Amino acid sequence: MAEDGATTGAAQLAGVFGGEANLNAMHADAKRMLADAKAGKWAVDEETGSHLRRAVTQMQEQMSRIAQRIDRLQRAPKFGNDDYAKRAAAHFLAAMDSDERSLVRVFLAAQDMLGNLQEAIEIAISKYDASDEAATQALTTFKDLDR
Length: 147
Fold this sequence. Notes:
Elements: H1 2-16, H2 20-38, H3 46-73, H4 83-96, H5 103-146
Helix pairs in contact: 1-4, 1-5, 2-5, 3-5
């Protein structure tokens, strides 16, 4: 029964991001965006970046409210000391945190995706600012040559 609850919980959490396949794609996209931003292939102006930053921050805040409950799912419940209680606790723990589809792993993947996205946005804003400043300096040089 715990496995069904974990699967349902993981599916519901992934559903927030449009389903498991969409969450996995978003996770890969966030990593790619971060790499592109670091390489200078992606930049965004401050205004657009602030809207993106705000959306990611709101999602991260919602995830942090859930984080304490997720932490509890990473510990075996205290059902007792007999063999059956120990097996049941191990089964519960495995159902919550055993593979990419388990609730804990889906949650951690979502957190990681949001962290990568936030970092990518910050870098992209800084790259835009740097390219805007370089363009301004280049135009100023041309303007000074015209005199």
